[in-house]
Amino acid sequence: MVDLNFKYKTLIDFLKSESPFIPELSIILGSGLGDFADQLQIIKSISTSDIPGYPVSTVVGHKGKIHFAEYENKKVILFQGRVHFYEGYNINECIIPVFISHKLGAKNLLLTNAAGGINKNFVPGDLMLTTSFNGILIKKELTDLIGLTNLAGKDNSINLPQPDLNSIIKKSALDEKINIKEGVYWYTKGPTYETPAEIRFFAKYGADAVGMSTVHEAVYSSYLGMKTAAISCITNFAAGISTQKLSHSEVTETADRVKDTFARLVKRIIKSL
Ligand code: HPA
């Protein structure tokens, strides 16, 4: 197990000295969803390239910025972009936004991502609240990160989104008249999209949406005791669900198309916390 307090000491000391406040909520913005930061009153922005030891994202649509922002008197830290396991980073680098959020004092975490829709009732542009995750492909890495017993969890709930945070999100969607879907987010390592056979396999075991992030962040934040929830933007039909060819540009285009709905929802969530 890597001692993250030791590994990231300089980075955390730097951010603690730069942070203008203790955030109540941390939001990690997924592919194509980074523009949400413009919706809040930005107090301070830091490029991740200026943070000592911060891993650099190589993916289009991931800006690499941390914002300290306010909305309705709530203090929020926003991560515009993440690094992925498929980029070659270790899990202990992929969870760095969660580690930072916790160190800076955030008690709530909202994870967002772009995902392919597997559930036949989903269409591109839908938003999905995560009810559960799979993590089988990164169990070993997660175990290395937090230990076997912790991963299993005493009440078996370590990697589940928190029901009370999910209730706030559902109520916020209702208030905003947004028809939010619910389902299981299925992690896959990537970096290539899945084959139709893989999607049929995932569907058979309960997957509603598929993506390449989030699960390790959720497991780690729950381990740290943060209230955690995740929202997916369904950006495309998963492989084989439609005949259309998958592309990263479709992912970012759909995320861009729903950004106003996404923003209304997330702003309402912040207000409701
Ligand atoms: N598969 C995996 N990850 C994704 C997808 C997908 O179809 N869409 C957006 N992220």
How would you characterize this protein structure?
The chain has helices spanning 4-7, 9-18, 91-94, 96-103, 139-146, 148-152, 163-175, 196-204, 215-223, 248-257, 259-272, and strands spanning 25-29, 41-47, 65-71, 74-80, 108-117, 127-133, 181-187, 209-211, 227-237. By secondary structure, the protein is α/β, with parallel strands linked by helices. The chain has one domain (4-265): Rossmann fold (3-Layer(aba) Sandwich), CATH 3.40.50. A five-stranded mixed barrel has the order 5-8-7-6-9. Helix 7 (163-175) crosses helix 11 (259-272). The structure holds hypoxanthine. Residues 114-116, 188, 193-194, 210-212, 235-236, 238, 246, 251 line the site of hypoxanthine.
Helix-strand layout with pairing:
Elements: H1 4-7, H2 9-18, E1 25-29, E2 41-47, E3 65-71, E4 74-80, H3 91-94, H4 96-103, E5 108-117, E6 127-133, H5 139-146, H6 148-152, H7 163-175, E7 181-187, H8 196-204, E8 209-211, H9 215-223, E9 227-237, H10 248-257, H11 259-272
Parallel strand pairs: 1-4, 1-5, 5-9, 6-7, 7-8
Antiparallel strand pairs: 2-3, 3-4, 5-8, 6-9
Helix pairs in contact: 7-11
This protein binds hypoxanthine.
